[in-house]
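Box S1 | Example of a co-folding query
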Amino acid sequence: MLGKAQGDPISITGLGAYAPKRVLTNEELSTLVDTTDEWITERTGIKERRIAAPEEALTDLALPAARAALAQAGVEARDVDLLVCATVTPDMMFPTSSALLADVLGAPDAGAYDLLAGCTGFMYALAQAYGMMAAGLAERALVVGGDVLSRILDWTDRSTLVLFGDGAGAVVLERTPQRGFLGFELGADGGGGIHLSLPGSGSRRIEDATGNGYVHMNGREVFRFATRVLVSSAEAVLDCCGVSVDEVDVYVPHQANVRIMDHAAQKLGIPRERMVVNVDRYGNTSSGSIPLALAEAQRDGRLKKGDLVLMTGMGAGLTWGSGLMKWTL
Ligand code: COA
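Box S1 (continued) | Returned holo structure for coenzyme A
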């Protein structure tokens, strides 16, 4: 799917993020599995990540992020008429996390649903909420992206354990005087889906129950996929919107691995200083990754009104998605 924004200008008017308090360092991980800080740092750029407390579930992380986004937008929860929550680790399959959030926030008029697109979830949710608003079906959307991947990791598997962390982010979408969203590109390749999977998590019976309920990953294949789509998806959306890569002020790729991100920035021709990097402190937080990075960039003053922002996510599915927007906050 590839398209340029048309119709009423729509933008992000509020942004919030939340990560659990508990910091898990590479040194601590090296006491749990056969790994070292040097290996993790060199291969991924990750130094530490946040891990949810046993009693914390996805909506506990999403709630403060959503409240912060609503506060920044100056929007009351009761005025939200669409709530999309992108996650692969909802509190439970149903009731959906979006329905629970709508209830706790006090958004009784919101159509609310969860969206499953792996680490690309936030980009899919953003495009979908934008589309619903552009079509006139919704007036004010709250888009949440977050995951508690620590719950679905095999804590004895060093090849996945070192990569991921927990966190959530949220944005409010409203009609604005100036055009925020300029275009989106989304894609999926189920043929490669087996390279990043969660066996036993749905209706497919798995005879060999070994590893069921834990993330399985073919790291090298996912690496190849990620380096390819981060570039092709970004180029597609830039081309569709008639924007040159030199015009991009802030580049926010999915925070999976600093090597993957550096490769993409270099291939695209985006100077490293324009790329937002926080994977060193959060690891890969799946659907939380892009909004967490946006929130940090906004807090640091790196993301300013008028900036052209390029975001690209990729992950399980295999899926990918890019969005191009002018920052209007
Ligand atoms: N600590 C120490 N050694 C480890 C290790 C760890 N945590 N994990 C794997 N190794 C070992 C492997 O067993 C292998 O040993 P061998 O050569 O004796 O077989 C060696 O390190 C190299 O493994 P390899 O898989 O080739 O490393 P890599 O350079 O490809 O890096 C990843 C591995 C996982 C960091 C990398 O492939 C990656 O980032 N892939 C993408 C993952 C991703 O982003 N997933 C989420 C997408 S949303």
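The pocket of coenzyme A is lined by residues 35, 39, 43-44, 119, 158-159, 162-163, 217, 219-220, 222-223, 226, 256-257, 284, 315 (CB under 6 Å). The chain has ten helices and 14 strands.
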